[in-house]
Design brief:
- The complex is a heterodimer of chains A (313) and B (328).
- With 313 residues, chain A is mainly alpha-helical.
- Chain A has one domain: MetI-like fold, CATH 1.10.3720.10.
- Chain A contains 13 helices and no strands.
- Chain A is globular, with a radius of gyration of 24 Å.
- With 328 residues, chain B is α/β, with parallel strands linked by helices.
- In chain B, the strands form three sheets. Chain B has an eight-stranded mixed β-sheet with strand order 6-7-8-3-9-10-14-13, with helices on both faces. A four-stranded antiparallel β-sheet of chain B has the order 2-1-4-5, covered by helices on one side.
- The longest helix of chain B has 18 residues.
- Classes of the chains: A mainly alpha (313), B alpha/beta (328).
Chain lengths: 313, 328
């Protein structure tokens, strides 16, 4: 367990370097963007001085990390608002979207995967596989536009875009989150469906399932035995898919005009708003690392054999 | 009335390459407190017989023929639902692979409790308490603590004892043991066989023991059925099988035992083997399927299948040329 925590910290450290350098590899000069195309060179130089952009990159990096560890991610180059404040404001929105998408993905993916494995070769299995293939192949932006076209324009039962804070109006918030969550969760559910199906099919033919049957238990309990051993695969995939989910969230928020992290990142990229971009990406990476740490911990619960190995460390 | 009566059992698997008739025609009876051993080489259908008694072959591409009677009740007419009530309660199974037959994700205690909760209507607490007793019964030391262990924390021999604890939890009429000692060290084997013997003596459990190990047979079985190519070719009390084997195949099996090694002209003792190969299980011709490998085969052997004849009390053999007397 300690080893996983240390690994996570090292990963975060390396990721922060990559993010920091990566952001600076973007074409375009933030000082120029800030000062305007036609600015006086003296003004541009002053801005460089103010944001520390004239220092060597490694000094910039250590200054940044030192401050970031104290919760100070600098100020937005556009409106001088502290980045930490912006992040705290945007993070819950994306967390809600991602949470709902994971809920959609797990509910649909797990259910479809279990049904198609248990009823292998049936119509339900066939239908789930077709769904899985489509869900994997269809890109978010296209699915999002189709969803808007169908639900918002043709049926007019759900709003096409916009966001209302949960604290303001919970019902309206959820109503506006349904489509984005479905769009974002579809790809995840397709991956989970396929992985659950494959893992469960493998486990259902295991010797211990035959043992369970020899005890006279019902078919559903047999499946429960097998499912328990399939969940490690499912949890792994879920952890790995989180990266894709973050990418998908950026696009989904753009389509549905949700002022979350994704939108923040895109806006920051186009405005060369280094501090905001860095902070946002770093927080996203931290989230990814934390989720994978949680996956490791979940393993120990799901697979007793790993509990022993973890305890010995 | 016999506890278990298997009559004209036939098991056919549908495969992509055509049917495989794993069991062609098997009949036997098992009395209360009796240990009957089904013996034969790999592929003779002995395990298939074992798994088809509680209908554990499962798949839809299996065709079962004949009948299985438990205390006179024909199980072949039972629905899957009613079979579930029989499995683990009246007929239970110990499998060959102790390493994989237990679920790695659940504790030993919960896996034993499961069968008690299913059939005995015990509370969770009572089931766990009973599970501890069962672990003690099968000779697992420190049972109170082991109840919380996961399978990977136990040795193969210990896991097989847990399997046996599960199988005997509901005091079954019939215990089917499919090569229960094959995967175990020889030193562990004796202990496991001893558990079976005690179960039979104390609880009157009837046991069908599938094995290819004639040493195990000699140790524990009351009666032996020798299987070849999906049929029982010879069935007799254990003593008679070893003292006066009658079917050429049985004599071949016994001749392959190190203790029966035959003195050669050069003064060295050598094991005898049975020439040839097991016939393909895809056909069921009306002939003695052992004939191509048999030294005493004649035209009659391939003209029609020999019926089972009694050569002594309780000793039947399906052969036109049964051997008489003891082996050398």
């Amino acid at each position: 367990m300690l080893q996983q925590v240390i690994t996570s910290i090292v990963t975060l450290f390396l990721a922060s370097i990559v993010v920091f350098v990566g952001v600076r590899l973007l074409p375009g000069d933030p000082a120029l963007v800030l000062a305007g195309e036609t600015a006086d060179p003296a003004v541009v130089a002053a801005i460089r001085e103010q944001f520390g952009l004239n220092q060597p990159i490694w000094i910039q990096y250590f200054n940044y990390v030192g401050q970031a560890l104290q919760g100070n991610f600098g100020v937005s180059t556009r409106d001088r608002i502290p980045v930490a404040e912006i992040l705290l404001q945007r993070l819950p929105i994306t967390l809600e979207l991602a949470g709902l998408a994971i809920l959609v993905g797990v509910l649909i993916g797990l259910t479809a995967g279990i049904v198609s494995a248990v009823k292998r070769g049936s119509f339900a299995d066939y239908a789930a596989n077709v769904f899985g293939l489509i869900g994997l192949s269809v890109p978010h932006f296209w699915l999002g536009m189709l969803a808007i076209l169908f639900f918002a324009i043709n049926l007019q039962i759900l709003p096409a875009s916009g966001y209302v804070a949960f604290t303001e109006d919970p019902a309206e918030n959820l109503r506006r989150m349904i489509l984005p969550a479905l769009v974002l969760g579809t790809g995840l559910s397709a991956v989970l469906m396929r992985q659950t199906r494959a893992a469960l099919l493998g486990q259902l033919s295991a010797d211990y399932v035959r043992t369970a049957r020899s005890k006279g238990v019902s078919r559903s309990r047999e499946v429960k035995h097998a499912l328990r051993n399939s969940l490690t695969t499912v949890v792994t995939v879920l952890g790995l898919q989180l990266g894709a989910l973050i990418g998908g969230a950026i696009i989904t928020e753009q389509i549905f005009v949700i002022p979350g992290f994704g939108k923040l990142i895109i806006d920051a990229v186009s405005a060369r708003n280094y501090p905001v971009l860095q902070g946002a990406v770093l927080v996203a990476v931290t989230g990814y690392v934390l989720v994978n740490l949680a996956v490791d911990i979940a393993y120990a619960y799901l697979n007793p054999r790993m509990r022993l190995a973890g305890g010995a460390r | 009335m016999s506890v278990l009566a298997v009559e004209h059992l036939r098991v056919e698997f549908g495969t992509e390459n055509g049917p495989v008739i794993a069991v062609k025609d098997v009949s036997f009876k098992l009395e209360k407190g009796e240990i009957l051993s089904l013996v034969g080489e790999s592929g003779c259908g002995k395990s298939t017989v074992a798994m088809s008694i509680p209908r554990l072959l499962g798949d839809s591409n299996v065709t079962l023929g004949g009948s299985v009677r438990l205390n006179g009740v024909d199980l072949s007419a039972f629905s899957e639902k009613r079979m579930q009530a029989v499995r683990g309660k009246e007929i239970s199974v110990v499998f060959q692979e102790p390493m994989t037959s237990l679920n790695p994700a659940y504790t030993v205690g919960s896996q034993i409790s499961e069968v008690l909760l299913r059939h005995e209507g015990l509370s969770r607490r009572a089931a766990l308490a009973r599970a501890v007793e069962l672990l003690e019964l099968v000779g697992i030391p420190d049972a109170q603590r082991r109840i919380a262990a996961f399978p990977h924390e136990l040795s193969g021999g210990m896991r097989q004892r847990v399997m046996i604890a599960i199988a005997v939890a509901c005091d079954p009429l019939v215990l089917i043991a499919d090569e229960p000692t094959t995967a175990l060290d020889v030193t562990i084997q004796a202990g496991v066989l001893d558990i079976f013997r005690r179960l039979r003596d104390n609880l009157g459990t009837s046991i069908v023991l599938i094995t290819h190990d004639l040493g195990v047979v000699a140790d524990i079985a009351d009666r032996v059925a020798i299987m070849y190519a999906g049929r029982i070719v010879e069935m007799a009390p254990t003593v008679a099988i070893f003292a006066a084997p009658t079917h050429p195949y049985t004599r071949g099996l016994l001749g392959a035992l190190p203790s029966r090694a035959v003195m050669q002209t050069d003064g060295r003792r050598r094991l005898t083997d049975i020439p040839g190969l097991v016939p393909s299980p895809s056909t069921d011709p009306d002939e003695c399927q052992f004939a191509p490998r048999c030294a005493s085969a004649s035209g009659a052997c391939t003209a029609a299948r020999p019926a089972a004849d009694l050569v002594a009390v309780g000793h039947s053999v399906s052969c036109y040329h049964p051997a008489v007397g003891a082996m050398l």
